[in-house]
């Protein structure tokens, strides 16, 4: 590839303290690369749930998700089936497939989400607002359907 064909994007090293943080009560997300940084081709974010925290409710997006579990156990519902994903597990969720996630364990859990194509990050202010009005509950309680349902 010659220099004229190179992408206008620049290489990026993201430090642990960098990224755009979104607090949603008992859950938080940190977007590490998205938008202009990726030419809207994908976004990379971390999602962290406090112990025994119910997820957003079953929902679907047009974009594909790839989850990689960093810590703890993430309980995933994909197309109506629940499974537990432990540290080191991947989950591939094609766009349009209904899914949910929650932390049924007594310790924090976290996962990386790669969304492709990019653009999911543009919904985050509205998602934060939704969770302010609909706080996440304990896994022992029931929750309403999540945003994007």
Task: Explain what the structure shows.
The protein is mainly beta. It has one helix at about 125-135; strands spanning about 20-25, 25-35, 45-50, 65-70, 75-80, 80-85, 90-95, 100, 110-115. The protein has one domain: Sandwich (Jelly Rolls), CATH 2.60.120.10. Helices cover about 5% and strands about 35% of the residues. Strand 1 (about 20-25) and strand 2 form a beta hairpin.
CATH topology label:
Jelly Rolls
Tell me the major beta sheet: 6 strands, antiparallel
Which whole number gives the mean pLDDT? 91
The number of helical runs is 1
Number of domains: 1
What is the oligomer described by this structure?
A: single chain
Given the C-alpha coordinates, what overall shape results? globular
Assess the beta-strand content as a share of residues: 35-45%
The count of DSSP E runs of length 2 or more, i.e. the number of strands, is: 9
The SS-based structural class is mainly beta
Terminal CA distance: 43 Å
Describe the structure using short key phrases.
single chain; 149 residues; mainly beta; six-stranded antiparallel beta sheet; three-stranded antiparallel beta sheet; 9 strands; disordered C terminus
What are the SSEs and their pairings?
Elements: E1 20-24, E2 27-33, E3 43-49, E4 64-71, E5 73-78, E6 81-86, E7 90-93, E8 99-102, E9 109-116, H1 124-133
């Amino acid at each position: 590839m010659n220099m004229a064909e190179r992408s206008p994007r620049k290489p990026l090293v993201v430090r642990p303290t960098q990224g755009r943080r979104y607090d949603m009560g008992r859950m938080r997300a940190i977007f590490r690369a998205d938008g202009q940084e990726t030419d809207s081709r994908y976004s990379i974010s971390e999602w962290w749930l406090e112990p025994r925290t119910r997820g957003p409710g079953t929902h679907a997006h047009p974009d594909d998700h790839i989850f990689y579990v960093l810590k703890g156990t993430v309980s995933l519902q994909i197309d109506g089936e629940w499974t537990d994903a432990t540290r080191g597990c991947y989950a591939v969720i094609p766009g349009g497939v209904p899914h949910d996630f929650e932390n049924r364990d007594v310790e924090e859990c976290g996962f990386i989400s790669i969304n492709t194509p990019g653009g999911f990050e543009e919904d985050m202010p509205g998602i934060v607002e939704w969770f302010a009005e609909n706080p996440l509950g304990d896994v022992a309680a029931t929750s309403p359907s999540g945003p994007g349902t």
